[in-house]
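Quick bug: Alpha/beta hydrolase output formatted oddly.
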Amino acid sequence: MDILLIAGLWLDGSAWDDVVPTLESLGHRPVPLTLPGQGDGAASATLDDQVAAVLAAIDAAPEKPMVVGHSAACTLAWLAADARPEKVAKVVLIGGFPAADGEPYADLFEAKDGVMPFPGWGPFEGPDSADLDEEARRSIAAAAIPVPTGVTKGLVRLVDERRFDVPVVLVCPEFTPAQAQGWIGAGDVPELAKAKHVDFVDIDSGHWPMVSEPTELARLLGS
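Here's what came back:
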């Protein structure tokens, strides 16, 4: 199966480098995506540009792909399911939840000169980053790409309710499946509350399992 891999904010396709070999050994064709504005140098990129890049990868796949979104890119994966419900085999969400219609994509931290830079590790202290050693933290921070505000402030638009028929797997790293189910049940994640097929998978990691637990993450994705 083709597995489209979409990393979260500040990351490009290389974030998946340690995940790809195991997926290939399991017989899959991983396709890490480098998004407009997150690795291609397009500082003027918009959320629509990123959605278009994901849709192009789906349309180029020889058969229905699995679409994997990490962190903020969980919303990108869900937007893809909304735009191509008949062409997506499954959506996998890692450490995040899809935004609802009309919400900003990821307007989370202060922007400077038209981009939102990585804010440092302060906001991520605790379960998010507890499993990252100093070398991993330095590596992630050094490679972090400021994300254009045309992406982060872009409004999510969801139009096709057939997205709720697409199977979803929620991979739970820094939170537990029970916590995720509680948030969904409380109405905090309306999109997943309406999804008809949601499975929950636990992984013992922080927010970046592709860095700290790449082999285990690949096995979960490839199983």
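Actually, after a second look the formatting is fine. The chain has a mean pLDDT of 97. Closing.
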